[in-house]
Design brief:
heterodimer; A: mainly beta; 7-stranded mixed β-sheet; 11 strands; about 0% helix; B: about 110 residues; mainly beta; 6-stranded mixed β-sheet; about 55% strand
Chain lengths: ~120, ~110
């Protein structure tokens, strides 16, 4: 059982370039999330999707876009990368969205460096 | 913006010692989760607490949710090198289902 896979594992990107981080889950979870993790700031929610076909903005959505064409895939796109987007990006999923609490399952992360 | 602050930020202790990590906020949360993250991996859920004053135990780990549901603590008894990692608390703000993560406590247990 793979759970959540993310690609690439790491990437060095020139500022201004477009980049898509891939995320795929095989648990048939309805909800998916993208976080960025920066030292001293913890995990911050970028975008989320509570079901295929719908997306929403998290705490730090500027400069990022997402799509949810099907249940399994939730790509994150940086249209024009900037150095402040250097971070470790985690994709996560949970079986439901509309509960007071739910367990999120995380992927292994993508380390992105924007020069 | 609702914030969850964790303390201490870093902790290095000897094997066998006890420790407590704190997670504090000025906001009320409907639930509070603790995750552990190891280098190069994503966080993994340890526990969820949902009732004010609730205490849960997971082997040598004891988790408590504050009576007012604004804070939580994680106590580790007789720490072992395998406990080394980044501990994150995450709160589910009342009225929403989005989780806010704390700043993290990086624990190193020396053999």
């Amino acid at each position: 059982i793979a759970g959540i896979t993310q690609a690439p594992t790491s990437q060095i990107l020139a500022a201004g370039r477009r980049m898509t981080l891939r995320c795929t889950q095989d648990m048939r979870h309805n909800a998916m999330y993208w976080y960025r993790q920066d030292l001293g700031l913890g995990l911050r929610l970028i975008h989320y999707s509570n079901t295929a076909g719908t997306t929403g903005k998290g705490e730090v959505p500027d400069g990022y876009s997402v799509s949810r064409a099907n249940t399994d895939d939730f790509p994150l796109t940086l249209a024009s990368a900037v150095p402040s987007q250097t971070s470790v990006y985690f994709c996560a999923s949970s079986d439901v969205w509309d509960r007071p609490y739910n367990e999120q399952f995380f992927g292994p992360g993508t380390r992105l460096t924007v020069l | 913006t609702q914030l969850l602050e964790q303390s201490p930020q870093f902790l290095s202790i000897q094997e066998g010692e006890n420790l407590t990590v704190y997670c504090n906020s000025s906001s009320v949360f409907s639930s509070l989760q603790w995750y552990r993250q190891e280098p190069g991996e994503g966080p993994v859920l340890l526990v969820t607490v949902v009732t004010g004053g609730e205490v849960k135990k997971l082997k040598r780990l004891t988790f408590q949710f504050g009576d007012a549901r604004k804070d939580s603590s994680l106590h580790i008894t007789a720490a072992q090198p395998g406990d080394t990692g980044l501990y994150l608390c995450a709160g589910g703000p009342s009225g929403t289902y989005k989780y806010i993560f704390g700043t993290g406590t990086r624990l190193k247990v020396l053999a």
